[in-house]
Specification:
Blueprint: H1 2-24, E1 29-36, E2 50-57, E3 60-70, E4 75-81, E5 90-96, E6 106-108, E7 123-130, E8 137-143, E9 146-154, E10 160-166, E11 171-175, E12 180-183, E13 192-193, E14 195-198, E15 202-207, E16 210-220, E17 225-235, E18 240-248, E19 251-256, E20 291-293, E21 296-298, E22 300-303, E23 306-309, E24 326-327, E25 342-344, H2 345-348, E26 367-368, H3 372-380, E27 395-397, E28 402-404, E29 409-417, E30 422-429, E31 435-440, E32 444-445, E33 450-451
Parallel strand pairs: 1-8, 9-18
Antiparallel strand pairs: 1-4, 2-3, 2-5, 3-4, 5-7, 6-11, 7-8, 9-15, 10-13, 10-16, 11-12, 14-15, 16-17, 18-19, 20-21, 22-23, 24-25, 25-32, 26-33, 27-28, 29-30, 30-31
């Protein structure tokens, strides 16, 4: 009986050990959180969009161009799981849109874009040294093509009917390991017909990045055409350019504006393109004063004429509910300088939306949540210290679940909302420059206030 009982215990313990071992070895689903500036066809990925994902661990290819579908929060597929060796890191490469033919090494641009340019929307992303885990992997998707916005000033009696671009090749060599794209050597120039954004006033075209003579031809309703060339124009991968075109009875005048690093929808470079700034202090070398708010002392820093909080906001207003309106970072909230809480956008803004005036939200009096122009200026300012943006991770919140995202990725909240339930913000990662993007208004992200 004793032997039998002991055997039962051993068998039971062995069964538990096997069960635990199986549980510990349960594969985890691979999930991708997309970070991006914008898309050509819209401001963000939409549910049902697909990417092709390739994973290499060392010299071995784990998956090649695996289709992953966006569910509104992450790209995933229930059948794609991490491998068991958590010590083996991997390089992940992704491309949008997904093509069953494989990740592109060559891309032929859609030449007739008059009906839309969604097919010219090519984005790539790569991330290195990724270890298998239950945390979604953040990947920054970059535009590989160039976008040219053409603004028309028509001084003639006839209406503009069409805008075309000549002189540029329409086939690109694609390198997703960077990712980037350049015109394929030997590819012949071809005409690209631009999409009409606003009848007779603005047009838009996606072009292959390259340097060369760019010719714009404008057709009018009286049957006339006029052309003008920008000599040796340089259009780089992932950048947007504005081209001002004035047409009168004497022909065309062209003015190509400098590139805008963040590829945004719309916008114009008329005037300075910069927001009105508060007066500089009499002594600009004077150290910026600390800000005391709700018993917490925040250092401040003047960047580009604006006075910014130099630490993430951590106030807990009585009107907000923890785990609904705000969250602690995954690592907790210690005394480390710069750490803060993660806030839902709608809660942080107090239910208000940007209407051209600063949105104070949960910021102290005289301060506000930054708008898109202020975020853009902060990202581009060379005076911004490399360690200015403190990464506290972010909280993924959907209708059915909550979980923390990549702890090495942070989002700095802006006050402008889109019609798709997202807010404009800056995405930043360790060792990478911040870029403009959008996240769900329900996500928990970082807040930094800027002085009015």
């Amino acid at each position: 009986m004793k032997y039998s009982s002991f055997s039962g215990i051993v068998l039971l313990a062995g069964g538990l050990m096997v069960a635990c071992a199986k549980q510990a070895a349960t594969p985890r689903r691979i999930e991708i959180v997309p970070n991006m500036q914008t898309r050509v066809s819209g401001l963000y990925f939409e549910s049902g969009d697909r990417i092709g994902l390739t994973i290499r661990k060392g010299s071995e290819t784990y998956v090649q161009n695996y289709p992953m579908t966006y569910d509104g929060a992450v790209f995933a597929d229930d059948n794609l799981l991490w491998y068991d060796d958590v010590q083996q890191t991997a390089t992940l490469t992704a491309c949008y849109p997904y093509s069953p033919e494989g990740l592109p090494e060559e891309f032929a641009l859609l030449q007739d874009q008059r009906a839309g340019y969604e097919e010219a929307d090519l984005l790539g992303a790569v991330v290195h040294e990724v270890s298998p885990s239950g945390t979604p992997v953040a990947m920054l998707f970059r535009h590989l093509m160039t976008r040219l916005s053409i603004i028309i000033d028509n001084a003639t009696a006839a209406a503009v009917t069409e805008v075309a671009i000549d002189g540029f090749a329409t086939v690109a060599d694609v390198d997703l390991s960077v990712p980037t794209a350049v015109a394929k050597p030997g590819a012949l120039p071809a005409r690209v017909q631009a999409f009409e954004v606003e009848p007779g006033l603005s047009y838009r075209a996606i072009l292959v990045p390259q340097q060369g003579d760019l010719t714009v031809t404008v057709s009018t309703s009286d049957g006339r055409t006029a052309s003008r060339t920008v000599a040796d124009a340089l259009l780089e991968s992932g950048r947007r350019y504005d081209l001002s075109v004035r047409i009168d009875d004497n022909g065309l005048e062209l003015s190509l504006a400098g590139e805008i690093v963040d590829w945004e929808e719309g916008g114009s470079l008329g005037g300075s393109g910069k927001p009105d700034l508060p007066d500089e202090p009499e002594n600009p070398d004077e150290e910026a004063p600390d800000l005391v708010y709700e018993g917490v002392v925040y250092p401040t820093l003047r960047i580009g004429g604006r006075l910014w909080m130099a630490g993430n906001l951590r106030c807990q207003p009585a009107s907000l509910t923890q785990e609904v309106d705000y969250w602690y970072p995954q690592s907790g909230l210690g005394e480390e300088t710069g750490q803060g809480l993660l806030y839902a956008c709608t809660a942080a803004m107090g239910g208000k939306t940007a209407d051209g005036t600063p949105v104070q939200g949960i910021c102290p009096d005289g301060w506000h949540i930054p708008d898109t122009e202020e975020l853009s200026a902060l990202a581009a300012d060379p005076e911004r210290p490399d360690d200015f943006l403190k990464c506290d991770g972010f909280r993924i919140v959907t209708a059915s679940s909550q979980r923390y995202g990549d702890s090495e990725t942070g989002y700095l909240m802006g006050c402008e909302l889109t019609g798709t339930g997202k807010c404009r913000c800056l995405c930043y990662q360790t060792g990478a420059d911040p870029v403009e993007t959008e996240v769900s208004v329900n996500y928990g992200i970082t807040v930094r206030c800027v002085q009015d």
